[in-house]
Amino acid sequence: MAPSRRLKRVVASQPGFLSLKSSDLTGEVSSRRKRVNKNKKKNWNKHSDINDVEDFLEDIRHQERTTGGLLADKSDDNLFFLDVGQQPKDHKASEQVQGKKRKGKSQRPLRIDLILQHDSLVPPIKDVLSYQQPNAKKLRGHAKRLEQLAAKGVVPRTQRMLLNRQTLNTTAKKAATEANNNPKRDYYDIWGQESKSSADPWYLQQTGKKLVKRPEELNKKPSVLPAVEVIAPGGSYNPDFFSHQALLQEAHDVEVKKRKAESKIERQLAVNKEDRATEETIFQEQVEGLVEEEEEKEVAAVEEEEQVAPVEEEEQVAPVKEEEQECVGGAITLAEKKTEKQRKREKAEKIKEQLRVAEKNQKSKQQQLFQLRSIKTAIKKREKKTAARQKQRKAKMEAQKAQPRRLGKLKFQPEDLEIKLSDELTSTLRQLKPEGSILKDRFKSLQKRNLIEPRERAKFKRRYKLKYVEKRAFRAIT
Amino acid sequence: MGGLQKKKYESGSATNYITRNRARKKLQLSLPDFRRLCILKGIYPHEPKHKKKVNKGSTAPRTFYLLKDIRFLLHEPIVGKFREYKIFVRKLKKAYAKTEHTAVERLKENKPTYKLDHIVKERYPTFIDALRDIEDALCMCFLFSTFARTGKCHVQTIQLCRRLTVEWMNFAITSRALRKVFISIKGIYYQVEVMGQLITWLVPYQFSHDHPTDVDYRVMATFTEFYTTLLGFINFRLYNSLNLVYPPKLDSKAEQALKDNNEEDYALDAESYLEKLSAFSASLTRVVSAAEEEAQMDHFPVDEEDMEKLEEREKEQKQQEAQKKMFEGLKFFLNREVPRESLAFVIRCFGGEVSWDRSVCIGSTYDETDETITHHIVDRPSVGTQYINRYYIQPQWVYDCVNAKIVLPVEDYFMGVTLPPHLSPFVEEKEGDYVPPEKLKIMALQRGEKPAQQNDEEEESEEEEEGDDEDDDEAEEEEDKVQEKKLKKMEAQRSQPKVRVTPGVMKVDNPAQREQQEKAEEKRLAIMMMKKKDKYLYDKIMFGKKRKVRETNKLAAKRKAHDDNEKAMKKKARK
Predict the structure, then answer these.
(1) Residues 121..150 of B with a Cβ closer than 8 Å to A: which?
(2) Per the record, where are the segments of Basic residues compositional bias (chain A) (predicted)?
(3) How many CA atoms within 13 Å lie on the side-chain side of A177?
(4) Which of B95, B192, B454, B525 is the most buried (most CB within 10 A)?
(5) What are the residues whose beta carbons fall under 8 Å from the beta carbon of B197, sequence distance 6 or more?
(6) CB under 8 Å to B363, separation ≥6 — which residues?
(7) Distance from B73 to chain A by nearest Cα, in Å?
(8) Do the domain assignments include residue A191?
């Protein structure tokens, strides 16, 4: 406020303030005086010359911009200095300055920053509106009232409501919703404390809150294999020669077995050489049906010659066939009724047969009395056999405990043995290149111990067929 | 024959088993959820004895579970949580699709989670049960802790695994539990003894991961989820048993020492404590800071027979105590190319002091220039500046010392020297088995014999070989002389009369020898008196033994030939 007011004052004190009849104006205009009505403000604005005022104001503004005020107001000390000539120390000082400059070269601001700097000494105008608050008066009054109430000790309603609200146990909630793999989770002595269930066990059981006892059977491990199988001594990074060779041999054996199985399948799938088409067979196939008649004729001729002799035989065979056919036809008709005599005879025969068998059995049993020793040996033999079998079965079962079971579609496929060939062995730990993947090893171990079933990765199945369309732009080129 | 006709597959094994799909439907879970549940609860598929019966006449390969197990699963509270989670995902998807951000926030805040604590308690009713089954957990956690944080699994899981493994290793250090280490081409096997249980686990080498594609990560992550819970509780219990604070805290003294002014260069504030713990260079705080009490063995009045055993046991105990303090007083420095974590763990497990270069890892306690360093572990052919008062050795020395249970002589392990083979400590030779000579050497050292002789012998033998050519002529001359002597004797005999009297030799009665002879005689008689059947068995056993001996001899001879060959090659190379 102050500078502008002062400016007005200064301006007022200057002579020739707003001279309407300036000489410049008249000079420029032709000798013919232009007539202008001066009773209208519009014309004042239009035809009065204000250049001198503008210049003057511009000058003042310039002064203010560059020096921060009017030069006329400044004291002499600010405007002038006493020239005493060059000082003797100046050289040294300048050197120092130079040295400093060199040092501080990097700290000098960039030219672009200097250009962009605000170089006017007149401070920027404040935006009054930004300091204003809508409803300031009302709010001020409200705040005052609140203060007064607070001084009296009255809690406002909103505050009261907040306070009256039930406090949530945030920590408990957080613990409940805390993820299982939170790296900062805490542990406690799970085996030390007994479960403290104060509620009625019957109630807990009925409401499904009581944990069901785990059956003992479930704590049995499905395999006797250890969780971590240590690699053979040949798998050391710097192995003993023989153990290394032994391991290599083992790996070799596995590989040979695999190859054998592969080659077996290949052999089975191979095409038989005799089945392969030769030129001859191809030719025969091509002429099939063309040469047939001649050949058949020849064949027929040969057959006729042969048939001369066995004609009689055939004639004999033919009637037999006819008879059979008749018989077959007759079997469909019901069997004729048996006579009483026949029935009696059959019955008697049956009884006789039964008696015979019974007698035979009786006799053989009596005979067995004399065969006691041989029977005994037979029994012993049999018992021995069963015992041996039992033993074998037991051994087999025992061995199977360590074997991976067939738990699903796929069979367990053991991992390839990790080996390093003799020329891959390094002399130092630094150069060692690890073999195999432990993740895979662990996964296979879980499968081997029957904890999970062997599985193949699910294949990606596309629901709809892909459709290829040539892009328009591309099509335009081709 | 009254009664109804029995229908097929309505009793017996057909009703005892249930196929996976039916089980899944019974539990109303999706297949991945079902799989997860089975892993968490420790319910595994079964192979029925008669598959066709169980499968109701079909021979299609299926996965079967015991019906009782599935019925047991029905009671599990987690099943409900799984269903809730399914709903949660559905709701979340919907909210996302409608871009209802507040709803998304709210849903995420109330994400259903579950705890596995009760399952741990249920599966392992006592602490020792859990400890017996810890190997899998350790392997899995160590494996996951080395994963890169690239989204193959949750970063949080990796962090948790790292934390648990560091805790476990710190426990092993404090309790001095490490027994065996084996550096294999796969990874490093460690064996510790905790509460009388031998626990083995496998640690992968750092930065050695290629992620195999044929491994089901979801299954592995589920196992890890359970095992992290288990391992955490076990760690807590173990720390309690040693009067250590859980979660582990560094000793205040040590913490002061470790405080570095440019700490934040290593890790974020949030992670720096774990990093410091994983440096293993400082001890942990105890609940009761009393002086360590040496556990005294109880003495009971015993019979004389047991006395010997007791003494033996005492001796063993003493030996073990000495073994635990193997590296005490030694000061190690690790060069930057050696595996820091493994070596620091092993050395600290036996009481050694260890440090490394400041830029390698947080927690280094002294510099390379420290004059009191006794062993400098190097894995490169040469080092720039060498200090006179320390050994420059290769890392294998540390591991071999652990396996040999004594501080081995350092000569074989000097920088740039061809190392002796690293033998597996997990192989236990029975009597009559082939034992590699390196192991024999170590066994001799354990017995307290001097190792220097063997070296000398070897050198001598080398010298002998060199001198062999010169000796040959002399030997021939000697042979001639001997023959001449023989001839002279024969001639003398001929000239003498045939009957003569010679002075008798007094028979020395050696009681020990006689006893031995008698014993041998008795044995022979006993063998003669054997039944035919027993004799057959006895012969078989003896034959087996002999065969074994023969085989070992063969291997030993082979080894000798190999060694000789190598030596010759070396000599050639030297020339």
Answers:
(1) 121-124, 126-127, 129-130, 133, 135-136, 139-140, 143
(2) 32-45, 99-108, 383-394
(3) 14
(4) B192
(5) B128, B131, B132
(6) B258, B275, B276, B279, B280, B281, B282
(7) 9
(8) no
Overall number of domains in chain A:
2
**B210: chain A residues, CB-CB within 8 Å:** 437
SS3 A106: coil
Ordered per-residue pLDDT tens for chain B, 575 residues = 568 888 888 888 899 999 999 999 999 999 999 999 999 999 999 999 899 999 999 999 999 999 999 999 998 999 999 999 999 999 999 999 999 999 999 999 888 999 899 999 999 999 999 999 999 999 999 999 998 887 778 899 999 999 999 999 999 999 999 999 999 999 999 999 999 999 999 999 987 667 888 899 999 999 999 999 999 999 999 999 998 888 888 877 666 666 654 555 556 666 677 778 888 877 777 776 544 444 555 555 556 667 788 888 888 888 888 888 889 889 999 998 999 999 999 999 998 999 988 888 888 888 888 889 999 999 988 888 888 889 999 999 999 999 998 899 998 899 888 899 999 999 887 777 777 777 888 888 877 776 554 444 444 444 444 444 444 444 455 556 666 677 776 666 666 556 777 788 877 778 888 899 999 999 999 988 888 888 999 999 999 999 999 998 998 898 888 889 888 888 888 76
Residues of chain B neighbouring A453 (CB-CB closer than 8 A):
45, 63
Alpha-carbon distance B471 to nearest alpha carbon in chain A (angstroms): 33
Size of interface A-B (CB pairs under 8 A): 242
Element (H, E) at A321: helix A311-331
B68 contacts chain A (CB < 8 A):
yes
Hey, are the CB atoms on B559 and A429 less than 8 Å from each other?
no
DSSP element (H, E) containing B555: helix B532-574
User: How many Cβ atoms are within 10 Å of B249's Cβ, its own excluded?
Assistant: 15
Q: Tell me the chain B residues in contact with residue A185 when contact means C-beta distances shorter than 8 Å.
A: 160, 232
Residue A264 to chain B, least CA–CA distance (Å): 25
**Per the domain annotation, does A64 fall within a domain?**
yes
Q: From the list B143, B208, B559, which residue is nearest A442 (CB)?
A: B143
Residue A215 domain boundaries: 135-174+197-219
Burial of A441 (0-12, 13-18, 19+ CB in 10 A): buried
Instruction: Mark whether A148 and A169 lie in a shared domain.
Output: yes
Tell whether A140 and A211 lie within a shared domain: yes
Asked if B216 and A192 come within 8 Å (Cβ–Cβ), the reply is: no
Alpha helices for B259-386 (secondary structure H): 269-278, 304-324, 340-349
- Chain B residues with CB-CB distance to A231 below 8 A: 182, 184-186, 189, 424
**If contacts are CB pairs under 8 Å, which of residues 218-257 in chain B contact chain A?**
219-220, 223, 225, 228-229, 232-233, 235-237, 240, 246-247
A159 occurs within a structural domain: yes
Same-domain pairing of A116 and A142: no
**Chain B residue with minimum CA distance to A410:** B61
Radius of gyration from C-alpha coordinates of chain B = 35
In a domain, A271, yes or no: no
Measured in angstroms, the CA of B198 and the nearest CA of chain A are apart by 12
Which amino acid appears at position A171 of this protein? T
Give me the amino acid identity at B90: R
For residue A427, which residues of chain B lie inside 8 Å, CB to CB?
Answer: 418-419
Nearest to A445 by CA among A414, A416, A419, A417: A414
